[in-house]
Amino acid sequence: VKLVESGGGLVQAGGSLRLSCAASGIFFGINNMGWYRQAPGKQRELVARITRGGSPNYGDSVKGRFTLSRDYVRNTVSLQMNELKPEDTAVYYCNAVQNVNSYWGQGTQVTVSS
Fold it and tell me: What pLDDT score was predicted for residue 73?
């Protein structure tokens, strides 16, 4: 089981980035997929996640700015991040839950300059 993330980088405040995550080695039964983030000195927090057949749930700080989408055929999940703020700076981690198993990607850095 492997989650491969892409799309992080450096952007100015107000800009946009798109993160993508592809799951391999999982052929069925992924329930939740989504993104979490962790800033230095802070706990990992939910950014957005989506259950199979459901609507995305967003963390309060990103509502209205970020959009999560999921491709059930390709086992991918993407996060469109608009109106980025310096406080969005963090390592972003892809997460997939299959039954009782939770899998994490290696993380991708997002840095927003003011």
Answer: 86
